[in-house]
UniProtKB/TrEMBL annotation, chain A:
InterPro entries on file: Trp_synth_b_CS (IPR006653), Trp_synth_beta (IPR006654), Trp_synth_beta/beta-like (IPR023026), TrpB-like_PALP (IPR001926), TrpB-like_PALP_sf (IPR036052)
EC number(s) from the headed UniProt entry: 4.2.1.20
Gene source species: Tardiphaga robiniae
Source organism, top-level taxon: Bacteria
UniProt xrefs under SUPFAM superfamilies: Tryptophan synthase beta subunit-like PLP-dependent enzymes
The protein, known as: Tryptophan synthase beta chain
Any single Gene Ontology cellular-component annotation: cytoplasm
Family stated for the protein in its record: Belongs to the TrpB family.
Pathway, per record: Amino-acid biosynthesis; L-tryptophan biosynthesis; L-tryptophan from chorismate: step 5/5
PROSITE patterns in the record: TRP_SYNTHASE_BETA (PS00168)
Role: The beta subunit is responsible for the synthesis of L-tryptophan from indole and L-serine.
Automatic annotation (TrEMBL), chain B:
First-level EC class: lyase
GO molecular function, one term: tryptophan synthase activity
Free-text function comment from the UniProt entry: The alpha subunit is responsible for the aldol cleavage of indoleglycerol phosphate to indole and glyceraldehyde 3-phosphate.
Active site: 50 (proton acceptor), 61 (proton acceptor)
PANTHER family membership: TRYPTOPHAN SYNTHASE ALPHA CHAIN, CHLOROPLASTIC, TRYPTOPHAN SYNTHASE, ALPHA CHAIN
Organism field: Tardiphaga robiniae
Protein name per UniProt: Tryptophan synthase alpha chain
EC number, as in UniProt: 4.2.1.20
HAMAP family documented for this protein: Trp_synth_alpha (MF_00131)
Keyword Heme: no
UniProt-listed Pfam families: Trp_syntA (PF00290)
Matching PROSITE patterns: TRP_SYNTHASE_ALPHA
InterPro entries, alphabetized: Aldolase_TIM, RibuloseP-bd_barrel, Trp_synthase_alpha_AS, Trp_synthase_suA
Substrates-to-products reaction catalysed: (1S,2R)-1-C-(indol-3-yl)glycerol 3-phosphate + L-serine = D-glyceraldehyde 3-phosphate + L-tryptophan + H2O
Length: 405, 278
């Protein structure tokens, strides 16, 4: 598939929500009028200085932004190459980048007068962020989560319930993120009159991939300014893990038109790319699911296959449509890391920097461990540390204990 | 171009009655039994047959139809085999219109350019694709019309007067009014609201309007058939099928008749209704 190289990599999507052939609005008619309303409400909000001002206030005082850009000195020394900076999204309120997007969407929902909020969640980070902001603004909150994820991310289930959300354990399919999204869409079709669907990543029908990207772009915008202050120049490379791709898109988007910046996304290779995995670009092809055309894992009949990853947040057989486009035009390189590689990186960062990462960004850290040693010492590399590992401590603890005995 | 759907509605108009439209899933509970079920439906009184194309992620379907699709996939059903099912049915029935209903991805992967002539040649008359709203007409709707297939659109309670013309613009065969905001098999339709909605759609189109989602009993089907050009029943038939399966989910000697008997009762409900519409 060859596509023309655009003048800017940052101008998408077009009016119909397409990034090249990817994206679009593949939804049931019941939802279509609401999606058009949402697009209008979002465009109005974006043009309203009062909206931006209110967002900025909450981002600063409630979320705790800006998040630091931290020089990981011991990791850099250990790897012996590129100078590694961590964008500390794990320090945000609720413990991940997800809150940046949720804050934005909840403010849009309030403008639309919606009082009932639904969300899907994998690792539970998006669910926790949604439950948190619903508590803050007094909104009803229902979170759909695959039953397998409910079991492996218990700390987050308890948090959501404490925040007043109702967590629905989804029992269909592989009972992970894809199935949670199906159930959320079914709820939305049923309760469309009063319900706002707060999607957790840069996927879904237009305008979600664009809107979520815009709300997450604060990660990259801050990084530009901070790197300028720290090093007086742009970074040389960026790297982030990809579930649906929102933390990655948030870091990447402000740098897409800077040709000197190399950009890497890291998918979950699970047990390996020839085995069970969740790397839709490495192992999938373009198809249509959950409202958009994008790279998907599927069989030759177009039936969607389940993702597999140790990390519940990456366990999704698709990827946001803008990533699919950036892949086909070659602006971003997509790599993948296995469960084992992520586990090793999880432990390495904990021991060297005193930061326990979530299993999701541990996938990005695993590839940092491969790339950094091959690069010169003046190469500036930024890793999006998208979340903290508290939620994974019981799961990883069990895995490591199982190995000792 | 006249399809079997157009011909069927012209006949029904002369007879002054509404269409009984059945929905069953291709390959459920296995390809051979599904073929027998489809063959039995016209005899039971079905005027139009919708055949579901199984998909792993049916986002507008409730638990019954989700499970039917998964049973079919587990039994090895594919889109290719669904077309074979239609071909096998057509060998003995050249009149009953067949509409394939489902989601876009399996067709997209089969290849639109290849799928449309294959479907037409197999004897398919129309398509209902849940996740292709008018905004995505270039994908399949326009090529399908060119290939001589009806593209039947869903109109819903959220489709307001402003949007209806866009929804109806490239619709042919009939309009499928989804009588509830929700997934298949959940709420039941309220006949007075349905009658108002059908009247509203008819102000915008001369096409027949069939109503579905939430019709389970002969009485309900009778009620809807008084106000619309057709009543669609799916989940109730699939529940009857499921009730006939053995403990391992396999077909039994009762499976075909369980569906056909309920279809016959529903058909009586529909066909006994005097049409208030028009
Ligand atoms: C910490 C963290 N990072 C990354 C992800 C993956 O999502 P995305 O690719 O949209 O950033 C998740 C999802 O749950 C997460 O919790």
């Amino acid at each position: 598939m060859t596509q023309a190289i655009p003048n800017s990599y940052r101008s998408g999507p077009d009016d119909t929500g397409h990034f090249g052939i990817f994206g679009g609005r593949f939804v049931a008619e019941t939802l279509m009028p609401l999606i058009l309303d949402l697009q209008k409400a979002y465009e109005d909000a974006k043009a309203d200085p009062a909206f931006r001002k209110e967002m900025d206030g909450y981002l600063k005082a409630y979320v705790g932004r800006p998040s630091p850009l931290y020089f990981a000195e011991r990791l850099t020394e250990h790897l012996g190459g590129a100078k590694i900076y961590l964008k500390r999204e794990e320090l945000n309120h609720t413990g991940s980048h997800k809150v940046n997007n949720v804050l934005g969407q909840i403010m849009v929902a309030r403008r639309m007068g919606k009082k009932r909020i639904i969300a899907e969640t994998g690792a539970g980070q998006h669910g926790v962020a949604t439950a948190t902001l619903c508590a803050r603004f007094g909104l009803e909150c229902i979170v759909y989560m695959g039953a397998v994820d409910v079991a492996r991310q218990q700390p987050n289930v308890i948090r959501m319930e404490m925040l007043g959300a109702k967590v629905v354990a989804v029992q269909v399919g592989a009972r992970t993120l894809k199935d949670a999204m199906n159930e959320a869409l079914r709820d939305w079709v049923t309760n469309v009159h009063n319900t706002f669907y707060c999607i957790g990543t840069v996927a879904g029908p237009h305008p979600y991939p664009m809107m979520v990207r815009d709300f997450q772009s604060i990660i990259g915008e801050e990084t530009r300014v901070q790197m300028q202050e720290l090093e007086g120049r742009l970074p040389d490379s960026l790297i982030a893990c990809i579930g649906g791709g929102s933390n990655a898109m948030g870091l990447f988007h402000p740098f897409l038109d800077d040709p000197s910046v190399d950009i890497y996304g890291v998918e979950a290779a699970g047990h390996g790319l020839t085995n069970l995995h969740a790397a839709s670009i490495a192992g999938g092809r373009p198809g249509v699911l959950h409202g958009n055309r994008t790279y998907l894992l599927m069989d030759e009949d177009g039936q969607i296959q389940e993702g597999h990853s140790i990390s519940a947040g990456l366990d999704y057989p698709g990827i946001g449509p803008e990533h699919s486009w950036l892949h086909t035009i070659g602006r971003v390189k997509y790599l993948s890391a296995t469960d084992e590689e992520a586990l090793a990186a999880f432990q390495l960062l904990s021991k060297l920097e005193g930061i326990i990462p979530a299993l999701e960004p541990a996938h990005a850290l695993a590839k940092v461990g491969e790339l950094a040693p091959t690069l010169p010492k003046d190469h500036l590399m930024v890793v999006n540390l998208s979340g903290r590992g508290d939620k994974d401590v019981p799961q990883v603890g069990d895995i490591l204990k199982g190995r000792q005995s | 171009m006249t399809t079997r759907i157009d011909t069927r509605f012209a006949e029904l108009k002369v007879e002054g009655r509404a269409a009984f439209v059945t929905f069953v899933m291709a390959g459920d509970p296995d390809p051979a039994t599904a073929l027998e079920i489809v063959k039995a439906l016209p005899k039971a009184g079905a005027d139009i047959i919708e055949i579901g194309m199984p998909f792993t992620d049916p986002m507008a379907d409730g638990p019954s139809i989700q499970a039917a699709g998964l049973r079919a996939l587990q039994a090895g059903m594919t889109l290719r085999k669904t077309l074979q099912l239609v071909r096998d049915f057509r060998a003995a029935d050249d009149k009953t219109p067949i509409v394939l209903m489902g989601y876009y991805n399996p067709i997209y992967i089969y290849g639109v350019d290849k799928f449309l002539p294959d479907a037409k040649a197999a004897g398919v008359d129309g398509l209902i694709i849940v996740d292709l709203p008018p905004e995505e007409d270039a994908e399949l709707c326009l090529p399908a019309m060119k290939a001589g297939l009806n593209f039947i659109r869903l109109a819903t309670p959220t489709t307001d007067d402003k949007r209806l013309p866009a929804v109806l613009a490239n619709t042919s065969g009939f309009v499928y009014y989804v009588s509830i905001t929700g997934i298949t098999g959940s709420a039941s339709a309220d006949s007075s609201a349905v009658s108002a909605a059908v009247a509203r759609i008819k102000r915008h189109t001369k096409l027949p309007v069939c109503v579905g989602f939430g019709i389970r009993t002969p009485e309900a089907a009778h009620d809807i058939a008084r106000h619309a050009n057709g009543a669609v029943v799916g989940t109730a038939l699939i529940d009857a099928l499921k009730g006939s399966l053995d403990a391992d989910g396999k077909a039994t000697a009762r499976t075909v008749s369980a569906v056909a008997d309920l279809a016959a009762a529903l058909a009586q409900g529909v066909h006994g209704a005097k049409q208030a519409a028009e």
